[in-house]
Design a protein that fits this description.
Blueprint: H1 32-57, E1 60-66, E2 81-87, H2 90-93, E3 107-108, E4 123-124, E5 133-140, E6 154-161, E7 168-183, E8 194-201, H3 204-216, E9 218-223, E10 236-238, E11 255-256
Antiparallel strand pairs: 1-2, 3-4, 5-8, 6-7, 6-9, 7-8, 7-10, 10-11
């Protein structure tokens, strides 16, 4: 007679080895991403604390900052500027301005962001306001300081008419401020090696002279930014073949007063 021995592992009575290991409730053990995120937050907090301490260790200075975003070539006014007290080194403070009046009539040479500390390298200080007639014209790079002109620069505008022994060069305008300088499309034959400059002229007569010369003469721009060039002197130079009869006797064989 055979006795039926019941199987202890059958049905819903698993052994200890087969029982599932209970998991902790969700949220008790942080996931890998949470651990990494927490470490990064702690690191950021430490860096912020260090930077804060570094800022507080620097002396406080009242400086001029931009009230808004300012484009290159902009003539600054009180509406563009404001004073702000910040913690910066004495060395950096010496590179900026502490009084908005120092920037009266100045022009920006590069883009300036809102709240940005204005430094000497970003502006061109002028002693007089600039107002006039804006006019744009193309010019070859080699006749425009090899293309190194920037908005805010001042230039003298020269024009050379004719060629060879019959050529004559005239000074058309002095200390003209550039408000915009762009490079033409170098991929096109017509635009290769050219700039388009926008300048503010004092009178429409000066615009008429330059507009005419841009069509029939070779223009040259001479940078006068930051110089104390005299307003007097010759305004016309002629080659020997272009000198009127009797000019040699005046003692100026190469030019006229």
């Amino acid at each position: 007679m055979q006795l039926a021995i019941p199987r202890l592992n059958a049905g819903k009575n698993p052994t200890n080895a087969q029982r599932p290991i209970p998991r902790p409730a969700a949220g008790l053990i942080p996931r890998h991403r949470a651990v990494v995120g927490g470490a990064l937050i702690a690191l950021a907090a430490g860096l912020a604390f260090t930077a804060s301490n570094a800022d507080h260790s620097a002396p406080s200075h009242t400086v001029v900052v931009a009230r808004r975003v300012i484009a290159p070539g902009t003539q600054l006014s009180s509406a563009d500027l404001e004073l702000r007290t910040v913690a910066i080194s004495d060395e950096l403070f010496d590179k900026g301005f502490s009084d908005p009046k120092e920037l009266e009539y100045a022009a920006t040479l590069a883009p300036v962001g809102a709240g940005e500390f204005l430094q000497h390298s970003a502006v061109r200080v002028s002693g007089a306001p600039v107002s006039g007639v804006d006019f744009s014209f193309p010019i070859d790079r080699e006749h425009a300081i090899d293309g190194e002109l920037r908005s805010g620069d001042t230039v003298d505008v020269l024009a050379t008419f004719g060629s060879g022994l019959d050529a004559q060069t005239a000074l058309l305008a002095r200390s003209v401020r550039l408000t915009k300088v762009t490079t033409t499309d170098a991929s096109s034959v017509a635009g290769a090696g050219k700039l388009v400059v926008t300048a503010s002229f004092a009178t429409t007569d000066r615009v008429l002279d330059v507009a005419h010369a841009a069509q029939i003469a070779a223009l040259t721009l001479v940078r006068t930014t930051g110089t104390n060039a005299t307003e007097s002197g010759r305004t016309l130079v002629m080659s020997p073949g272009a000198i009127p009869s009797g000019a040699e006797a005046s003692g100026l064989p190469w030019g006229l007063p």
